[in-house]
Design goal:
The structure holds four protein chains of four kinds.
Chain B lengths: L4 H21 L3 H25 L3 H33 L13
Chain C lengths: L2 H22 L3 H21 L3 H26 L14 H24 L14 H9 L3 H22 L4
Chain D lengths: L8 H18 L6 H32 L14 E13 L3 E11 L3 H16 L9 H20 L3 H22 L4 H30 L4 H5 L16 H17 L8 H8 L2 H26 L1 H28 L8 H22 L2 H32 L10 H4 L1 H14 L6 H16 L1 H26 L11 E2 L4 E2 L6 H19 L2 H18 L13
Antiparallel strand pairs in D: 1-2, 3-4
Helix pairs in contact in D: 1-2, 1-4, 2-3, 2-4, 3-4, 3-10, 3-13, 3-18, 4-5, 5-6, 6-8, 6-9, 8-10, 8-11, 9-12, 10-12, 10-13, 11-12, 11-17, 12-13, 12-16, 12-17, 13-15, 13-16, 13-18, 13-19, 15-17, 15-18, 16-17, 16-18
The chains are: A mainly alpha, B mainly alpha, C mainly alpha, D mainly alpha.
């Protein structure tokens, strides 16, 4: 494929879902049910096309070249495995704003993630959403979302990134609030959008700083600029601040602490939407953004990122321990896993962070779709019993679903193993890499940074515990309600995506060795980019070593040319680590694996002891640790905190200002008017009595004389003319 | 003494006086109008006289033309009014029309 | 006394006499016919003043238009057969008063005219004025010209409207 | 001077509505009910046709417009110029007084001309609901149209002032006669406020006239043409600062910027829908247009002196307006229209901020924002008008669940709302982003503060969206068959309303995706304006070197 065709194909992949959106918005209602299948077919084509793109991109080594010059309207550049275009969008005076799309390995893999999950969700939704009055509208929104998400993936500049960032926000708003008759749903949509906007403001300021420094939005041009020593406001700390501001966007979209509060509420949306948006793709956009602009983060910014990720991972894991809503547990687990990814990127474990994104996308989508399957079944069962009060999402109403819904159970079990980090799953591979990365990081930097791996490991343990708690409560034991007992397995359309996604969570798809991902294709395709930040502001262990670059290239070539056996040889041959960090990570690999196995195992064991075998009573534990339980159950009171500070503050201020505007400013205006009126009242009276009196006096005098002179007025024209002429004569004599 | 500007002006003045006299004395509205025409003609003579002697040149002629136009319009309307008065009062004696008094 | 003066005085006499008849005659028809002579006289004066176009206009409009109109007015408003063919004046005192005023104004004006030092320019050689008037009318006086035409239109419509017999 | 058409198209564009007004006045008003209906219909359609022809003319102008020419202070690069002496008089003491009929457009006025034509065309349709004194209404409407168009094409200050006042009067009557319950109060308030602004402008205009000797705006921009010893001669003098401030306040009242904004909510609340549309869509732009056309290029030194103050005015308007709009949910009448009025204050703040940046992006963004705010806010007011027509209510708490009853309406309204909160893909985003890009280079801190405006903007808009369209349908909206109107009260949009709303929606979407036609239109002029200002003002560059 020529470079133009690659980009053209990417553009097609991007635009196809938009066409679906437009079609369904205008004609969906008219054609009814088939509109969904049109959307599914469009996504299917999209999936095929993006697979072609991805496979081509991963297997082909593109030579550096440039088509067209920077003054041309369209320029296509291939550099270091990134093929991208630059198109002049706007020009005002000497300011030229360019946009474009780009494709590298990162984007190529992400394309598959987005289109595959979107396709499966579309498929799942055809059954799940059937009977909804706004059926076609739903698929239209899904199309819009997919379009925006793909836009984020293939953007090669901040402007596009921001545009699609906002579009993703709005489509998520529409989908969360899809059942807008429910106040909680429309509230949740609003909350999601507004909280995201706060992050976006930071993102925008970051973009503004970068734009005003480099005069461009292009990633590569900005990185080149930083690389050549240009810094915002000529200061390295401003570069850090720019990085943190950009990361703010990721905080919002990836639901990182302290802006994580929107994601659990977003579960008000239809469950397939949760699977698509709030598990696999949109929330991963923040992680993707950090990965995409990884080259511009300074050491301080990376530390900030790592800390935020760690805090998020830990806090949300603790919250997930006590939640009873099926989807909320999954939501907090998502937040926690996103924290993991962010943390991984923050500590410099670039490849593992992104790897976890991909593996997490599969198994979390599977978890959500499985929960959708459960809820769907519960809902039907409740519906048949004419019970409209029981919450179909509350795990306390479930139990024993293992028997009624065996396929859902098996897939759910498998992906729970994956998220808990049990060997032979993809989750094990990626989580293990991250944990090794945190250990390496802490070892290299020391001090309080050791908290990061400690919290990360404890979060891993909690993840294993609460996931199995959920599994046991929902599927094992006896049915706790009649409805749960009467559930049935769903049909093929719902079950198929579950099976596919759980198969994708096997280790074999990423690496031949179930304990080590770094020899798989993924780790070869995704390599940490060369950091653009000047050495003074960057960890020395993240700098790519000069000779390492060469050996990596050789290594890659040998991998693509030779069998895996020889690759392994090169791998073990020694100095091919791109930097010190990678080496350290490798050393900690074994330790991390053992530790994580131990912790996850104990978490699972504890869950079985408490909930399956009831050796410890859950209720007793709850009573014993009542404050802690409440604290966790009420989500650390973040919602309340924000409500009583930020939200009330802003609303209070707006009330105050509206009142101020109404009373004071307008009051001043009206006061001045009133003063004028009062003074004019007095002046008017003065005028009436005194001045008018004088005038009236004069008028009376005039009237008297008028009465005398009235006799002159004969009414005859000729008299008047005569008088006129006399007047003229008199005037003439008077003048001369 | 050859005929100069003054001659024409004096002639115009006489004509003007006759016109004024007519306007003031006649009862019949149509005759009043005739007086008015005399006044306008005297004015026109002045214009033309100044056009020749006073350097007013062609502008004087143009002014005269406008006077004539106005006169035509005035007569048309005035006669219409006269007819109207006639229809209302069955006479056209201006001295008896003194509604303006009230 | 050259021929020019003779002609001038001839016209002057015609004008004065016929004007006197216009304002003094008892018979309204006499007045109307004298007015004809006055207009002719004035036209003659115009010719003497090199105003050929104005003279022609005078004859065409005053005599051909206005006078005819007046005569129609006389005929329409006066019962020819009735007593009112003779137009009365307003009374002795008024006549005396009006005569006085007219006299005063005549004397005043003649006095003023003959005693003023008028600014006089060199006499222009005689040339046809029509072309120049036309140019002036369509350039500098275009607006006035248009306004005049609108005025005439309004006058026609207005006259027709006022004069129409009420149903 | 470029006259690419060879036909006085701007004069036609400006005075066509007057022609329409004459036609409308000639339509006999019927005596009985039936013929009255007929004559009202004729009058309405005359207005439609006239404004439509005007729109076509405006589009022709845009196509014939050569966007490489800059204008601003160069007579040679203005386009469609017509320059005829208008008033010429000599006074013994004052000297010669001459006013020219001098019109033409450049990149600053061209978008405004198009905007005026579009808004005047679409606002005719909501006017169909006016039943009281239809003839007078449309006559006033078209007179207003001429006044607005005239303001944007005038290049002679006196002519500008004449048009400025010409548009004031019909507006006063349109609010005062066809307005809501407190119409007199609102109309008087509007009138006095604007008149105060005009007085300031008049004073400065006279001063400039004595300094330059003509009312030609281009001469006034040329500092070398000022007479020796005249009051505005030289640069950096106190009197020039005062004059600029007077002009600025005069225009800021019209914008309106905080703290001169309180006439706007009242005027909007009381005005009938189409007049609100015009008020927000076109009239507010005159303030910022006046700044760009008159205040800035004539007093560049004073702009330099007050530049940060101008930026602060912009920022305060953005934040304060947004807060007040948000506050409408909680206090006062909870009036939908008032909320949009305050949102206008906020959005016009972006224009001022963009202008104060003196960057090409910021300046072009400001003009573009003027255009976009015109189209978007017009939509918003029409949207309020639609439900007001059906229910005679417009409180934020009076509705709910309309999305189910009126899906098309909700769809169009979503476009307007999302455009107002700056969603990418819709035109509002581009202009706000450009304003931010430009302003950040000159005033990074102010720009960051004003960034909170976008959060607040999203908050109040989404809140409104939720209250009115989402949730359950209240009892009264399940309304019965209304026999007088022959329709259900909650009918979806009818053809007339769609005709008004859809073109605006298309413009908003089109410019959101392909903004370059509009940006190219103004690009050259923006550069020229910045060239004039350059010696005097702070222009942010690449911040790297700072």
């Amino acid at each position: 494929m020529s470079p133009e065709n690659i980009l053209l194909l990417s553009a097609v992949v991007l635009v196809l879902p938009l066409l679906g959106f437009v079609f369904n918005i205008f004609f969906g209602k008219r054609i009814g049910k088939p509109s969904a299948w049109i959307a599914v077919i469009i996504l299917g084509i999209d999936l095929v096309l993006s697979s072609i793109l991805c496979i081509y991109k991963l297997t082909t080594d593109l030579a550096n070249q440039t088509i067209g010059s920077s003054a041309d309207t369209l320029q296509i550049i291939i550099k270091d495995g990134l093929i991208h275009s630059k198109l002049i969008w706007l020009s005002v005076g000497d300011v030229v704003i360019k946009i474009g799309i780009g494709l590298d390995n990162l984007a190529a893999i992400m394309l598959i993630v987005v289109t595959l999950i979107s396709f499966l969700v579309h498929l799942f939704s055809t059954e799940y959403m059937s009977g909804d009055p706004r059926y076609s509208r739903y698929f239209a929104y899904l199309g819009l979302f997919t379009f925006s998400m793909l836009g984020i993936v293939i953007a090669n500049n901040f402007l596009f990134m921001y545009i699609f960032w906002e579009l993703v926000g709005i489509s998520s708003y529409l989908l969360i609030g899809f059942w807008y008759e429910k106040k909680s749903a429309s509230d949740a949509g609003k909350k999601a959008f507004l909280v995201n906007r706060i992050g976006d403001l930071g993102f925008l300021i970051g973009i503004l700083i970068l734009y005003s420094t480099f005069g461009t939005f292009m990633f590569d041009e900005i990185f080149d600029g930083i690389g050549s020593g240009i810094l915002p406001f000529a200061s390295g700390s401003m570069l850090t601040i720019a990085g943190i501001c950009v990361f703010c966007g990721a905080i919002g979209k990836s639901a990182q602490w302290p802006l994580h509060v929107w994601l659990p509420d977003a579960m008000e949306g239809p469950t397939p939407v949760s699977a698509l948006i709030h598990a696999a793709t949109m929330v991963a956009a923040g992680v993707y953004l950090v990965a995409r602009v990884f080259a511009m983060f300074t050491a301080d910014a990376l530390t900030f990122i790592a800390v935020i990720g760690t805090i998020t991972a830990f806090i949300s894991a603790t919250i997930a321990l006590t939640q009873v809503d099926f989807k909320r547990v999954l939501a907090y687990s998502t937040v926690s896993q996103l924290g993991y990814m962010i943390m991984a990127l923050g500590v410099g474990s670039y490849t593992n962070g992104f790897f976890h994104l991909v593996t997490h996308a599969w198994f979390k989508a599977a978890l959500f779709l499985a929960s959708g399957s459960v809820i769907h079944a519960m809902h039907h069962s409740l519906h048949k019993m004419h019970d409209h009060h029981t919450d179909p999402q509350d795990v306390r109403n479930m139990g024993g679903l293992r028997k009624t819904m065996p396929i859902t159970y098996l897939t759910f079990l498998f992906v729970t193993l994956a998220i808990a980090g049990v060997p032979f799953t993809s989750g094990f591979l990626s989580k293990d890499g991250i944990l090794a990365g945190t250990l390496a990081y802490a070892n290299l930097t020391g001090g309080w940074h050791w908290l990061i791996p400690i919290l990360a490991f404890s979060a891993a343990g909690m993840t294993a515990f609460y996931m199995f708690r959920l599994l046991i409560l929902a599927f094992h034991g006896q049915p706790k309600t009649e409805a749960a007992a009467k559930t049935h397995e769903n049909n093929f359309v719902i079950v198929f995506p579950l099976i596919l996604l759980s198969i994708l969570s096997l280790w074999i798809f990423y690496s031949p060795d179930p304990t080590n991902a770094s020899i798989g294709w993924f780790h070869r395709a995704i390599v940490q980019p060369k950091t653009a930040v000047p050495e003074d502001y960057q960890w020395d262990f993240l700098l790519i070593e000069e000779n390492a670059g060469e050996s990596i290239k050789e290594h890659n070539q040998s991998v693509s040319n030779h069998s895996e056996h020889s690759a392994e040889q090169v791998h073990h041959a020694g100095h091919h680590y791109i930097n010190k960090f990678a080496e350290e990570e490798h050393h900690f690999h074994g330790t991390a694996m053992m530790l994580s196995l131990l912790i996850a195992g104990s978490g699972i064991l504890l869950a079985f002891l408490i909930y399956q075998f009831k050796i410890f009573s859950a209720d007793n534990l709850e009573k014993q640790f009542k404050p802690l339980h409440t604290f966790s159950f009420r989500k650390w009171y973040f919602d309340e905190l924000y409500h009583y500070t930020a939200v009330s503050g802003i609303i209070g201020l707006s009330k105050l200002l509206a009142w101020f505007d109404n009373l004071i400013i307008d009051g001043l205006v009206n006061l001045s008017a009133a003063i004028t009126r009062v003074s004019s009242y007095f002046i008017g009276h003065f005028d009436n009595i005194v001045i008018d009196g004088i005038v009236n006096l004069l008028a009376n005098i005039t009237g008297f004389f008028g009465g005398v002179l009235r006799k002159v007025q004969t009414g005859q024209v000729q008299t008047y003319i005569a008088l006129l002429i006399i007047g003229i004569i008199a005037l003439i004599y008077f003048i001369f | 003494m050859s005929i100069g500007l003054t001659h024409y002006l004096v002639l115009a003045a006489i004509l003007f006086s006759f016109g004024i006299f007519g306007i003031l004395t006649r009862k019949n509205a149509v005759l009043v109008l005739m007086g008015l025409e005399l006044v306008l003609n005297s004015a026109n003579i002045n214009f033309i006289a100044f056009a020749k002697f006073g350097g007013l040149n062609i502008q004087g002629h143009v002014a005269a033309i406008f006077v004539i136009i106005l006169a035509a319009a005035e007569v048309a309307v005035a006669l219409a009014i006269v007819l109207n008065i006639y229809q209302n009062y069955r006479h056209i004696n201006v001295d008896e029309i003194d509604k303006l008094k009230e | 006394m050259d021929i020019f003066s003779i002609v001038f005085y001839l016209f002057a006499v015609i004008i004065v006499v016929s004007a006197a008849i216009v304002v003094m005659s008892k018979n309204i028809m006499f007045s109307a016919f004298s007015l004809l002579f006055t207009f002719f006289g004035v036209a003659g004066i115009y010719v003497l003043l090199n105003a050929d176009f104005i003279a022609v206009t005078q004859i065409m409009i005053y005599i051909g238009g206005i006078l005819i109109l007046i005569i129609f007015g006389v005929m329409l408003t006066t019962r020819i057969t009735g007593v009112e063919i003779k137009s009365g004046t307003t009374g002795k005192i008024q006549i005396a008063f009006a005569g006085l005023i007219s006299l005063i104004i005549a004397i005043t004006m003649i006095f003023l005219f003959s005693n003023t030092k008028w600014f006089t320019s060199e006499l222009q050689p005689h040339q046809s004025t029509i072309e120049n008037i036309g140019k002036e009318l369509l350039t500098n006086y275009l607006l006035a010209f248009e306004a005049a035409s609108v005025l005439l239109l309004i006058a026609i419509i207005g006259a027709a409207f006022i004069a129409r017999r009420k149903s | 001077m470029q006259d690419t058409i060879g036909f006085p198209i701007l004069t036609w564009l400006t005075f066509l509505p007057i022609l329409g007004m004459i036609f409308i006045l000639l339509v006999p008003s019927g005596k009985d009910e039936g013929s009255k209906q007929v004559s009202n219909t004729i009058i309405r359609w005359i207005a439609v046709v006239v404004t439509f022809i005007q729109l076509i003319l405006a589009i022709i102008v845009m196509f014939a417009y050569n966007n490489t020419l800059s204008g601003v202070n160069e007579l040679s690069s203005f386009q469609f110029v017509e320059k005829i002496p208008w008033i010429k008089a000599t006074f013994p003491l004052v000297g010669q007084f001459s006013v020219e009929y001098f019109i033409g457009i450049d990149g600053i006025s061209a978008p405004m001309v198009l905007l005026t034509a579009i808004v005047c065309f679409v606002a005719v349709f909501p006017s169909f609901n006016i039943d009281k004194a239809v003839k007078g209404y449309f006559a006033m409407y078209l007179l207003l149209d001429t006044g607005m168009m005239g303001v944007f094409v005038a290049l002679d200050f006196f002519l500008f002032y004449v048009f400025w006042e010409l548009m004031l009067l019909p507006m006063y009557f349109l609010i005062g006669i066809w307005g809501g319950p407190r119409k007199e109060y609102a109309a008087i308030k509007f009138f006095i406020y604007t008149l105060v602004g005009s007085v300031f402008m008049l004073l400065v205009m006279i001063g400039l006239y004595f300094s330059v000797g003509s009312f030609n705006m281009l001469d006034m921009m040329d500092l070398t043409k000022y007479f020796q010893g005249s009051i505005f001669e030289g640069t950096g003098t106190t009197i020039r600062y005062i004059a600029f401030m007077a002009l600025f306040i005069g225009f800021a009242i019209k914008v309106p910027s905080v703290p001169f904004h309180t006439w706007l909510p009242d005027a909007h609340v009381e005005a009938p829908t189409p007049i609100s549309v015009i008020l927000a869509g076109v009239l507010l732009k005159m303030g910022t247009y006046g700044m760009m056309r008159i205040a800035f290029p004539m007093f560049p030194d004073a702009v330099g002196y007050f530049q940060s103050l101008i930026a602060v005015v912009g920022v305060v308007s953005i934040i304060y307006g947004a807060f007040c709009a948000l506050g409408q949910h909680k206090v006062g009448m909870k009036d939908f229209k008032k909320l949009i009025a305050y949102s206008s204050v906020s959005h016009m703040g972006y224009v001022i901020l963009g202008m104060s940046s003196m960057r090409p992006e910021g300046m072009a963004g400001a003009i573009f924002q003027m255009f976009n705010h015109g189209t978007i806010t017009s939509m918003l007011f029409m949207i309020v008008g639609v439900i007001y027509d059906r229910s005679h209510k417009r409180g934020l708490d009076d509705f709910g669940g309309l999305a189910n009853k009126m899906p098309v309406y909700t769809g169009i309204m979503s476009i307007a709302f999302f455009a107002a909160i700056g969603l990418p893909g819709l035109s509002g985003f581009i202009s706000e982003a450009m304003v931010f890009l430009g302003a950040f280079k000159t005033y990074p801190v102010y720009t960051m503060i004003s960034g909170f405006g976008i959060i607040l903007g999203a908050a109040y808009m989404l809140w409104t969206l939720q209250k009115i369209f989402f949730g359950k349908l209240p009892e009264k909206w399940a309304g019965p068959w209304d026999p007088t109107k022959k329709k259900y009260k909650h009918d979806d949009l009818n053809a007339v309303e769609l005709t008004a709303l859809v073109p605006l929606a298309l413009v908003v979407i089109y410019l959101g995706i392909v903004p370059s036609p509009m940006i190219n239109l103004m690009s050259a002029s923006v550069n020229q304006l910045i060239e004039i200002m350059k010696p005097f003002v702070l222009i942010g560059g690449q911040v790297a070197g700072m």
